[in-house]
Design goal:
five-stranded mixed β-sheet, four-stranded mixed β-sheet, 6 helices, alpha/beta, elongated, single chain
Length: 207
């Protein structure tokens, strides 16, 4: 593996580790990488996969960011003070605020669709907001040779890709091997991330 992993070097590494060079296998390697990236986005929860956006909350729905996977926190400014909206089910939000034409200070949010949040109450003014969320990094491709995972967790991406390749190769004997390597890399990333995280601050108000 080169000093810095790229999409191209990852494809070569998968071919080399699997010791399979047939055209049908090589053609499938990008699929293994895509599946590995989805696996990591679902299972890794580190700071490298967190993003924050700031904007204005002024309606009963809000589009989710591109490549959003999970919300970490959702806050607004009310009277200069940061207040955190609480996550509730769609059914709870509809029962709590059945008429979206009635406005008030937002208190809750729900996953309305995979692309939108539902906000209740419907904002009665323009609120400055901050959304902290877990994203899937921009997928690797020939046009995008690197991303956060290739730079900071290349071993995790390699082992996940090899793990995804095993069913195609029908090589069940190596599944446990690569699963163990992947799990160890995932645990190491989580441990490293835990050391970076600051303890929760006291005194923040929630609804």
């Amino acid at each position: 593996m080169p000093v810095a992993m790229t999409y191209s070097s990852l494809l070569d590494d998968i071919e080399s580790w699997c010791e399979r060079h047939s055209a049908d296998f090589v053609e499938k390697i990008p699929t293994f990488v895509m599946l590995a990236e989805n696996r990591i986005a679902s299972e890794a929860d580190g700071l490298g996969y967190l993003q924050a956006i700031n904007g204005v909350l002024n309606g009963p729905t809000l589009p989710k960011p591109e490549r959003w996977r999970q919300t970490k926190s959702f806050s607004i400014l009310v009277g200069g003070e940061m207040l955190f909206l609480q996550s509730r089910s769609y059914q709870y939000c509809r029962a709590f605020w059945p008429d979206s034409t009635v406005t008030g200070v937002p208190r809750y949010y729900a996953d309305y669709t995979y692309e939108q949040f539902l906000i209740v109450g419907t904002p009665d003014e323009n609120y400055e907001m901050e959304l902290l969320y877990h994203e899937r990094p921009e997928p690797l491709s020939e046009a995008n040779e690197t991303n956060w995972t290739t730079q900071y967790a290349p071993q995790l991406l390699l082992y996940a890709s090899l793990l995804e390749a095993m069913p195609f190769l029908k090589n069940t004997g190596r599944v446990a091997e690569f699963q163990g390597l992947y799990d160890r890399a995932l645990a190491a990333l989580a441990s490293e991330d835990a050391k970076r995280r600051a303890p929760d601050s006291a005194g923040l108000r929630n609804y």
